[in-house]
Structure to design on (230 residues):
């Protein structure tokens, strides 16, 4: 993955199943591994169906090896094209260094990408751009709230700047809603198109299409898997 920029090493993400079930999983018999692997597939299918129910156009499992935190992406944030750099608790530099966010992410063992795609009349169809962004963000917040009620550990990454407040309290006061505030994939230093590519999920859906992409990470334990697949 070095071709995508400087990789911050925190240890191997390992094979999918081994990374999903901690050291105890490594001691399971072959039959039990096969059994849990089958359950994981059902969990993934259930979560994808769940995303569709919340109004997303596309969803798929995120390849954890694609989570490479790149200085090049942070440099784009520094250029302040979105007018949020150094103005929001969930944007750089307040969200943390690349080393900090890498440590924050490393213990999660499952991820899902969700997308909202719309067809524009032309590249200047600002109404569709605006409405699709609002739809995507609203659906994403609803999905995150639902997941939090079912899973004990979740890290969501949205599309675009955190906009829960009309004006962020940064830097004068602490974040008003630290349990609801969500950083974007870019603010974490992720190159979104590369994350999609390495997860075998399209990023571009054809001429005059617009796609907003977000993701969430879950810490699935064996008990979570067995409880949620009913």
């Amino acid at each position: 993955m070095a071709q995508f920029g400087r990789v911050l090493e925190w240890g191997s993400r390992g094979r999918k199943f081994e990374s999903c079930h901690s050291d105890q999983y490594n001691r399971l018999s072959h039959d039990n591994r096969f059994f849990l692997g089958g359950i994981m597939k059902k969990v993934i299918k259930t979560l994808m169906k769940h995303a569709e129910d919340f109004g997303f156009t596309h969803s798929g499992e995120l390849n954890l090896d694609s989570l490479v935190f790149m200085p090049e992406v942070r440099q784009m944030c520094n250029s302040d094209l979105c007018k949020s750099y150094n103005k929001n608790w969930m944007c750089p530099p307040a969200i943390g260094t690349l080393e900090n966010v890498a440590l924050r992410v490393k213990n999660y063992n499952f991820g899902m990408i969700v997308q909202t795609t719309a067809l524009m009349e032309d590249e200047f169809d600002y109404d569709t751009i605006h409405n699709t962004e609002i739809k995507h963000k609203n659906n994403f917040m609803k999905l995150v709230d639902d997941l939090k009620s079912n899973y004990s550990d979740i890290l969501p990454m949205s599309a675009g700047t955190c906009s829960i407040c009309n004006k962020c309290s940064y830097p004068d006061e602490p974040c008003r809603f630290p349990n609801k505030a969500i950083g974007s994939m870019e603010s974490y230093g992720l190159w979104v198109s590369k994350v999609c590519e390495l997860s075998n999920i399209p990023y571009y859906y054809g001429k005059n299409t617009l796609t907003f992409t977000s993701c969430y990470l879950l810490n699935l334990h064996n008990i979570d898997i067995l409880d949620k697949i009913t």
User: Anything to note?
Assistant: The first strand starts at residue 58 and ends at 61. The radius of gyration is 18 Å. The longest helix spans residues 30-53.
